[in-house]
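Q: Could you fold this chain for me?
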Amino acid sequence: MRNRRAALATLAGAASLALTLSACGDTTAGGRKVGSGDGTIGIAMPTQASQRWLTDGKSVVDDLKSKGYETKLVYGQDNPKTQVAQIEKLVEEGVDALIIAAIDNKSLNGVLQQAAAAKIPVISYDRLILGTQNVDYYVSFDNEQVGRLQALYIVEKLGLEKGKGPYNIELFAGSPDDNNTQFFFDGSMRLLQPFIDSGQLVVRSGQTALDKVTTLRWDGPTAQRRMEAVLSQSYRNRKVDAVLSPYDGISIGVLNALKADGYGTGSKPLPVITGQDAELPSVKSIIAGEQSQTVYKDLRELASVAADMADDLLNDRTPSVNNRRSYKNGVKAVPARLLQPTSVDRTNYEYVLVAGGFYKEAQLK
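A: Sure. Below is the predicted structure, expressed as C-alpha cells.
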C-alpha cells in the first residue's frame, strides 16, 4: 500500500474518474501483499468514557474483521497528546490505513504528515480533522440536520410557529475543539434565531454567542456547573422552558442541575431538553419523561460506511461520497459521505431504537 498515495490524492480530488489500477501487485513495506481483506487498519477513537465511542470502536472493528482485515483499536481518553502518540505508534507499526475520530481536530497535522510520508490513507471519522492536506475522506452524519432536528423539536413543542410565547430558553453547544460543534449550532440557530429576534424566545442569561455556550470535551459535569450558574444568576424568580442541548451527556448534566433546583415537580415541570446520540441513560430518561428528545445516529451504519471506505481505498476503488464542497478543513474541501439522523422521543423510540435493533427492550427497563 505504500506506493498508492499519489493515486489517493487523485481519488480525493476527482472521485468520478473510474480508476482501473490493480491491487494485485501492491505490497506493504514488509513485502506483504494488500488486497481485499488483507492488511491492518488502525482505528483511533477519542474516549472510552462515552458509550457512543465504545459502540463506534466495536462496530468498526467488527465490520473490518468481517472483511478479513486485522485491526488495531486505540482510545485517547480525551487527551490530544495521548491520541497523537497512539497514531504515531500505529504509523510506526505499519498499518495500511487509519480511521481517526479526533479529540482535538487541530492537533494532528504533524502526525498525519508522518502518515502521508508512509503512504497511509486517512479517513476522518465523524469529527473533521482540520488544518492538514493529509486527510483523504470524511464520514459522518449531516451535522447541520442534527441541529435542525433539535431546534425543530423545541419549536414544535413550544408552539412557536403558532405564535405562542414568550418562553425562556438556554443554549448549550459542544466542545470548541470539535468542528461538528459549529455545524450543530448553526443548524439549530437557523431555526431558533428568528424566534429570539421576535421575542418569542428569551435567553435570560444573555449567553447566545457560540464561544459563550460551548462545553469542553462535551463533558456532562461541566455542563451541569454552567447550568447551575445560569439558574442562580438568571432564574431566581423565573423558570426555564427549553434547553438546547447538543449531546446526551450534556443533557444529563443539565438535568441534574435542574432537578437540584426543584424542577421535575408538578409546580415546576422540567423544560424541553434536546440531545444527541441516543445513549442508554438518555433514552431511559426520555422514557421516564425527563429528557425530551435525542437525535439518533445509527453508529452501526457509520461504522459500516467507514469500513467500506477503507476497503475501497486499499483496493484502488473510488469510495462513495455525497458531499464534496461543504466540509472544508482550512486547507481543502474533504470529500464526505454524510448519513441522515433521526429525531427520537417517547412517541417513536420503540419503533426506531428497539424495532431497529439498536437496543433490546430489556435494556430500556
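A (continued): Residues 179-198 form the longest helix (20 residues).
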